[in-house]
Amino acid sequence: MAALAAGQADEATISDRLTDFAEYAAGGIPVTVLETLYQPGRRESDEHHMRLLLQVGLQRSTELLTEFTKHRPDASASDARRWLRDVTRKMERWRIGEDRLGGVKLQRNFADHMTWLSRIQLVLTDDDPKLSAEFAEELAEVPGADALAQAVQWHRRRTALDRLRAVVDAPESTEGQIHDELKKQTWIFGGRYVEELARRRLAPGDELDIPLLRGDGALHVVELKKANVPRLIEKPRSHPSVGIEVHRAMTQAANYLRSLDENRAQILATHGIECRRAFATVLIGHPSFDAGPYTPEEISEAFRTYNATLSRIEVITYGDLIESAERTLALDAQ
Q1: How many CA atoms lie within 13 A of 14 on its CB side?
Q2: b/e string for 272-287 if b means 16 or more Cβ within 10 A?
Q3: Given 65, 80, 212, 311, which residue has the most CB atoms within 10 angstroms?
Q4: Measured CA angle at 60 (ends 58, 61), to 5 deg
């Protein structure tokens, strides 16, 4: 009644305010709306926070689309929109990355959270077991889901192997660049592994390149070296043999295993990992970079002869690793 009377008296502002208060009292609008409408400075503050949120959101969307187009340079605008919608449907898969882009100590209020959001690295993960299980349950209800899941897995592995091949074939590639492509692609090593250990330092003084945990609990250490090793093979006498760089890499892996053996009890007590049956694979060189007059078959034969003398260590080239992975993909595609 009061709002109506104010309206009839041409007091529109008072009429609107009384109507809003009545709606709030009846539960029709939240108190935050009243604060925005009538609390001095609140509208400006909300608009400022809204602009910050929109700015950060647009910035993140641009970064997402930039990453998407790196892997899908031929994608259309429709493909990008569809992918962006798919990403937003799985917000629980986002976490904070390890890179620290700023050294700001932040307070726990809304404005600072906008600064916090714009200064951290966001990482989209797809290896959360809980989320994978939920997705599997959803997918199980779709006709032909098994074939679809196998096709998706095959495509992801095909893409990962192509990326690895490109890095290995580049003469200037570093061990770090190769590691970036190999990490968490445990299927390349035969599909026997349940996970890559997050901790790379198990024994004092040693940092393992890729520590894998096999299904039976055995630890598998993968030691990475450069693919471009010109003197991969030598021929000191009548038969080709592996070069000094290969032998040095094998010795490094042997020292890792010795250190794991010596610290077995401490590692088991601290990390719950049994190192008694630990073994190692050394990845080094590629036949295409060898400067000698040796065929790929002669290089493989030299490595087989060398491996026959070793215990708990296998030394292979990136060429052999990729060829083995190609055979796996070919079998999966049948």
Answers
A1: 11
A2: ebebeebbbbbbbbbb
A3: 212
A4: 60
